[in-house]
Write a structure and sequence with these properties.
Number of helices: 3
Helix content: 10-25%
Oligomer: single chain
Length: 482
């Protein structure tokens, strides 16, 4: 009996221990899956709020246990934002941790409104009386005649002619020419700048190379040049001039501040500088020219009849200065649409072949994949993406009752003349906007051909409302138990 009781007690103890171990293993497994679910939930919320990973939260209780997800590091990289986090799942006495890294990015970014590659072999064209209510980004050069831009411009070069206007700053990574145009902001140029006849500039100008200003103009700011500055007759500056080369002021030019030049300075007849003049060369004043302040020259100071200096004259000096004129013009690389990603994310895949959609109030959602061409028109509700492997044509009005569409093609897109289109368009080839067409949304196109009287209105509130969630990509960089 004693032996039986001893063996029985040992068996009970062993069975109890085995049960506890089994229970602990079960709790550890459940805690592991709670932690794993935390990673997945974080990724899902991150898709909806990609700009602030620190603010992403998940439930503290899940599947009968507790969950804690902590962001440990966030880094901005060229491909997007990288996020490191640790997810802790607990159930009973079991605790499991998983460390993960992920990168969040937008497949396309319509924050600029109008974005074109505008390559030299196929530059974008804007017809007469086009109005663009948007910031504009062009990786290459743009030429515009009688075009109104309401917003800032970031380009690889710019030519504005024939009553064009820009109500914002201009940033250019190439030469800029402005003639018979009105600009309300500043001009920043990595290259040469020419401001021609009948132009108006509301701000100041900066250029790494020469700056040439024509006659009879008014500038609302000063000039900084990495080279020569030449200012025509009857022109006024509400600022000073600083140049890493000579400065030539025409007749009746008025400079409302100092002039500093790494070279000679010459003032034409009746020209005036209200501040000082500093030169690392010679200074010459033509008839009736005047400097209200001092004149400092490394060379000679010469004055013709009735020319005057209100302050002191200091010739044969040893002045030395240099101006670091290098505006930061950071143009993003032109994007590409990832066909494989859209195919995998698609909620609707059409049978291969061309599609013609005449919408009549349908509610659209998700990502639609079309293997062929797409012709689309009508009125719609909801937020949806159409990825089209062929070309896209908006043959009649395409109007949003409540929502927004994103139309994507690696090829060409066309909006017919006199058509209104409520959509965002990406065309890896060209986008043609027919005469009198109106685009309300945004566009990204390798090249843009806008006919006369076209209007482009950037509508970021349509894009960010719900459409953006279809375009946020989350990729896992690593995943491990910790």
């Amino acid at each position: 009996m004693a032996i039986v009781l001893l063996l029985g007690g040992a068996a009970l103890t062993l069975a109890s221990g085995s049960k506890q171990l089994a229970l602990l293993r079960e709790e550890r497994t459940q805690a592991y899956y709670i932690a794993d679910a935390g990673i997945e939930m974080f990724a899902s919320v991150l898709r909806q709020h990609p700009d602030d990973p620190w603010a992403v939260t998940v439930p503290e209780e899940y599947a009968g246990g507790n969950l804690e997800v902590v962001v440990t590091e966030v880094n901005a990289v060229s491909e997007g934002t990288e996020v490191c986090l640790e997810s802790t799942g607990s159930l009973g006495d079991a605790v499991q941790r998983i460390a993960a890294g992920m990168r969040v990015s937008r497949t396309l970014d319509f924050s600029y409104g109008v974005w074109t590659a505008s390559p030299s072999e196929s530059p974008s064209q804007f017809g007469n009386n086009v109005e663009v209510y948007s910031n504009v980004v062009a990786n290459g050069a743009l030429a515009a005649k009688n075009v109104r831009f309401v917003g800032e411009m970031l380009t690889g070069g710019l030519e504005l002619l024939n009553s064009s206007s820009v109500s914002g700053d201009i940033w250019s990574d190439g030469d800029v020419t402005v003639k018979n145009a009105a600009l309300t902001g500043n001009i920043y140029v990595r290259g040469a700048l020419v401001i021609g006849n009948n132009a108006e500039v509301g701000g100041g100008v900066w250029a790494t190379n020469d700056i040439t200003v024509a006659n009879n103009l008014q500038l609302g700011g000063g000039i900084e040049s990495g080279g020569r500055v030449s200012i025509g007759n009857n022109t006024g500056l509400a600022g000073g001039v600083r140049a890493n080369g000579p400065v030539e002021l025409g007749g009746k030019v008025v400079i409302e501040n100092d002039v500093m030049a790494v070279g000679d300075v010459s003032l034409g007849n009746n020209a005036r500088v209200t501040g000082d003049v500093w030169s690392m060369g010679d200074v010459s004043l033509s008839s009736n020219a005047r400097v209200d302040g001092d004149v400092h020259a490394n060379g000679a100071i010469t004055k013709k009849a009735n020319a005057g200096v209100g302050g002191g004259e200091f010739a044969q000096q040893n002045n030395h200065f240099y101006f670091d004129v290098d505006p930061v013009v950071d143009t993003p690389a032109f994007p590409e649409a990832d066909e494989d990603w859209y195919r995998k994310q698609a909620t609707t895949i059409y049978q291969p072949g061309d599609q013609c959609l005449s919408l009549s109030g349908e509610t659209l959602d998700g990502i639609h994949f079309v293997e062929g061409n797409l012709e689309i028109s009508g009125n719609y509700m909801g937020y949806a993406v159409f990825y089209v492997t062929g070309d896209i044509a908006v043959s009649a009005d395409l109007e949003a009752e409540d929502g927004a569409l994103l139309l994507i093609t690696p090829g060409d897109a066309r909006v017919g003349a006199n058509r209104r289109t409520d959509a965002f368009i990406f065309a890896g080839g060209g986008l043609v906007l027919g005469a009198n067409a109106g685009l309300h949304g945004g566009l990204i196109a390798r090249t843009v051909d806008a006919g006369s009287n076209v209007e482009i209105h950037h509508r970021p509130e349509m894009y960010h409302a719900a459409l953006e969630t279809h375009l946020v990509k989350v990729e896992y960089l690593y995943w491990k138990e910790s």
